[in-house]
Amino acid sequence: DIEALQNMNGLKCWNILTVDTTFPVAEGTKGLARHLNRVCNEACEALRSGNTQLVVLSDRAMGRQRAALPALLCAGAVHQALVREKLRLAAGLIVDSGEPFEVHHLCLLFTFG
């Protein structure tokens, strides 16, 4: 389904920004905080430019050397950053993550952003 969305990028004014929500494991908890701010800033900058309608928060780059930001933390932080900057109504947020796998996890993601 995410691939279908990515194929729509640029069609009929649908511009999609995919933001990497992973960070190097070697950076530890300080890296987590720094990269959470990076994700929020990337989303805000894309919406300020006016060229983005969908923001996809993706942890597909996760691997042995890269840890994923927790999906709920990331979605909530981006949502709040966009609200604070008065940009939240300018785009939709999509979480592309393997982390949420129970109905409860999905309900929390809907609640937080």
How many distinct beta strands? Answer: 5
The level of helicity is: 40-55%
Average pLDDT taken over every residue: 87
Topology order in helix (H) and strand (E) letters = HEEHEEHEH
Strand content: 15-25%
The 3D shape can be described as globular
Description of the molecule:
It is a single chain. With 113 residues, this protein is of the alpha/beta class. It is 47% helix and 19% strand. It has helices at 2-8, 28-49, 71-84, 103-112; strands at 16-20, 22-24, 54-58, 66-68, 92-96. It has a 3-stranded parallel sheet with strand order 1-3-5, sandwiched between helices. A two-stranded antiparallel ribbon has the order 2-4. The longest helix has 22 residues, at 28-49.
Attribute tags:
113 residues; single chain; alpha/beta; 47% helix; two-stranded antiparallel sheet; globular; three-stranded parallel beta sheet
Brief digest:
The chain is 47% helix and 19% strand. It is an alpha/beta fold. It is globular, with a radius of gyration of 14 Å.
How are the SSEs placed, and which strands pair?
Elements: H1 2-8, E1 16-20, E2 22-24, H2 28-49, E3 54-58, E4 66-68, H3 71-84, E5 92-96, H4 103-112
Parallel strand pairs: 1-3, 3-5
Antiparallel strand pairs: 2-4
